[in-house]
Specification:
Layout (H helix, E strand, L loop, with lengths): L39 E4 L15 E6 L5 H5 L1 H10 L5 E7 L3 H10 L5 E4 L4 H5 L7 E5 L5 E5 L6 H8 L14 H4 L12 E7 L10 E5 L2 E7 L1 H9 L6 E3 L8 E7 L3 H16 L1 E17 L8 E2 L8 E3 L2 E7 L1 H12 L3 E3 L7 E6 L5 H12 L1 E17 L2
Length: 395
């Protein structure tokens, strides 16, 4: 299933991968890499140079990624170190994204990626290489044969040296995993369901690191997460605006919902199914809570750079936030997650801006300093009456 880059939540598979030991492999069984078909080279040689004929004798490390994918962005520093370490060796590092050219160029200004950066706008390369989740790295030897597929975080100098020697690197293999088929309840060989609503306990062996959430138009999957996570998704209510007045089950659940292409049915269906299954209900109420109020610094103009992009998903990690086209309402929402308290946007500004913030995640007060210094904004503690979702039992 193809998922658009612009989603409510981006698809980033995280968690444990299947470990594999070095194996003796019949060379005739090592698959040839599919053709390289890329529309645009953002950084690197002309497209004509990107073919297996032109790359003959060179090892190649392909990385499939996107700017909205947190694990992808998190792997950039290690990727850059490897590219620099093997600068004079016959190995090429090629990053492949399916996003817009303007967005990629803006992102690279903020977060440089070493090596070649390319655009696969029609996702033909993603499909040809069977990329079902990102980030995804494919290691190809100098004869154009795929030696391994793994998470970029598993790459190291030894793996690249093995690849240069025409050997199969000893790296954890990324499993051939389709999250949509992995938990289908239909029997083997049955057609894909046209409409589906499934809630069931996760396997007892499920690890916290195996959690996954995927949202696409008219489809939703959550694996191995507390039911409260799906509840908040269904009501579009963050943890700081949800009041739970009932004891919810602690064990994790798997949820699969597909509404036959009818996007308008997805949220109501998930809400109804969760409420009926667990005998709960949620009602909006006005509650007085401690909040932060985001506003402009008095007697000083904001230090905001207007964005030329219509839309670009922000990227947030502990201690950093990059947004190439953010509204201040979106900024307030991210600050709310970081500060664990509702943040109200009272700046009165409705444009889109380029925002790049870095702070000490161990010192919440440093975020206040950075927002004031970099953006000319501030957030102050207050107590306000706001709308929250209250979860109660119906029993």
């Amino acid at each position: 299933m193809r998922i658009s880059s612009f989603k409510v939540l981006a698809l980033c598979l995280a968690g444990a991968v299947l470990a594999s030991c070095a194996k003796k492999i019949d060379e005739t069984e090592v698959p040839l890499a599919p053709a390289i078909e890329l529309e645009t080279v953002i950084q690197g040689p002309e497209p004509a140079d990107l073919s297996w004929e032109a790359l003959a004798g060179h090892a190649v490390v392909l990385e499939f990624w996107s700017t909205w994918c947190s694990p992808c962005v998190g792997a950039i520093p290690k990727w850059n170190e490897l590219v620099d370490a093997f600068e004079d060796e016959p190995v090429r590092f090629i990053s492949v994204s399916d996003e817009g050219e303007d967005l990629l160029r803006k992102f690279l200004e903020k977060r440089p990626i070493h090596g070649w950066v390319t655009l696969d706008s029609d996702r033909s390369m993603f499909d040809a290489y069977g990329v079902q989740g990102i980030p995804h790295a494919v290691l190809v030897d100098g004869r154009g044969r795929i030696r391994a597929s793994t998470h970029p975080e598993n790459l190291n100098a030894e793996a690249v040296r093995d690849l240069l020697a025409g050997k199969t690197p000893d790296v954890p293999e990324k499993p051939d995993f389709d999250p949509w088929r992995a938990i289908r309840v239909a029997s083997d060989g049955a057609p894909e369901p046209l409409f589906e609503a499934t809630i069931r306990p996760s396997k007892e062996s499920q690890e916290t690191s195996d959690r996954m959430m995927l949202v696409a138009p008219a489809e939703y999957i959550s694996l191995g997460a507390p039911i409260s996570d799906s509840f908040r998704f269904a009501y579009r209510a963050g943890p700081t605006r949800t009041v739970i007045e009932v004891e919810l089950p602690e064990q994790p659940y798997d949820l699969v919902f597909s509404t036959a292409g009818k996007e308008e049915l997805l949220f109501p269906l998930v809400r109804q199914a969760i409420e009926a299954t667990f005998d709960i209900e949620a009602r909006p109420e006005q509650r007085e809570l401690d909040v932060y109020v985001l506003s402009r610094v008095a007697d000083a103009p904001p230090k905001l750079t207007p964005s030329t992009l219509e839309q670009a998903p922000p990227h947030a990690r502990p201690g950093s936030l990059t947004g190439l086209s953010m509204t201040l309402a979106e900024l307030a929402s991210i600050l709310e997650r970081v500060l664990q308290r509702p943040v109200l946007d009272e700046t009165g500004l409705d444009g889109r801006y380029e925002i790049d913030l870095n702070w000490d995640p161990e010192r919440p007060d440093s975020l206040q300093e950075v927002v004031r210094e970099e953006l000319g904004l501030e957030f102050k503690a207050d107590r306000r009456t706001i709308e929250v979702h209250v979860i109660r039992s119906t029993r």
